[in-house]
Amino acid sequence: MNALGPEPAPAEGARLDVLRSNLTAVEQRIAAACAAAGRPRSDVTLIVVTKTYPAADTRLLSALGVTDVAENRDQDAAPKAEECKNLPLLWHFVGQLQTNKVRSVLKYADRVHSVDRTRLVSALSAEVGKTGRPVLGCLVQVALEGDPAATRGGALPADVPALAEALAAAPGLRLDGVMAVAPLTGPFAGDPVRAFDRLAEISSLLRREHPAATMVSAGMSGDLEAAVAAGATHVRVGTAVLGVRPPLG
Ligand SMILES: *Cc1c(COP(=O)(O)O)cnc(C)c1O
């Protein structure tokens, strides 16, 4: 069956071929990393980060069997999600989230990976309450830079327990786990293996109090193997599937 319907136009067909072959390569990397770690392939979900790419690509990815996509900027994501709302996709929001964008993001996001402060917990919970939408899965984003001034979003490890507590207690929200980006500065700079091991430690402490919070969202195009080795359940891959992004405008 061809989920795209009629024959794609030539340009669309060429793009489909590129995405298919990139997806195959990423799939092979994930499978090899799982095998090396002695983990079943089904332990790890691939989330394709579609930021900066058009809705047409998201549609092609869906036709190729992708089930999970992620976006990091609401201005880019909102119209794209609207265009793709008929597709069987789960939408993950993975970027820094300002409280004034919460209403818009909750129109399409099934999960938010970037919860890093209690003010955001309150704003998300209030908005879910107002709209009556289904419960929102949330991850605590952990900053592994060590220096609060150097972080690009994320809660310091010491602040994770209290934030997780607030999240777990907030009506309309569900604490699903933790998320991190390998840091460019600090003690783990250039060492994603140790960074993701630290995240795994934080996850295991969290699960003592919140056993259902099993998601570990870690690993991107350059370091997904290290993340899978450290126990990531979700990898967020953009460039390796869609190509190098043009600089943000
Ligand atoms: C862009 C982005 C990714 C994907 O990064 P690639 O290196 O393109 O795979 C993953 N996670 C977050 C939070 C991102 O912003």
From TrEMBL:
<dbReference type="InterPro" id="IPR001608">
    <property type="entry name" value="Ala_racemase_N"/>
</dbReference>
<feature type="domain" description="Alanine racemase N-terminal">
    <location>
        <begin position="22"/>
        <end position="246"/>
    </location>
</feature>
<comment type="function">
    <text>Pyridoxal 5'-phosphate (PLP)-binding protein, which is involved in PLP homeostasis.</text>
</comment>
<dbReference type="InterPro" id="IPR029066">
    <property type="entry name" value="PLP-binding_barrel"/>
</dbReference>
<dbReference type="Pfam" id="PF01168">
    <property type="entry name" value="Ala_racemase_N"/>
</dbReference>
<comment type="similarity">
    <text>Belongs to the pyridoxal phosphate-binding protein YggS/PROSC family.</text>
</comment>
<dbReference type="InterPro" id="IPR011078">
    <property type="entry name" value="PyrdxlP_homeostasis"/>
</dbReference>
<feature type="modified residue" description="N6-(pyridoxal phosphate)lysine">
    <location>
        <position position="51"/>
    </location>
</feature>
<protein>
    <recommendedName>
        <fullName>Pyridoxal phosphate homeostasis protein</fullName>
    </recommendedName>
</protein>
<keyword id="KW-0663">Pyridoxal phosphate</keyword>
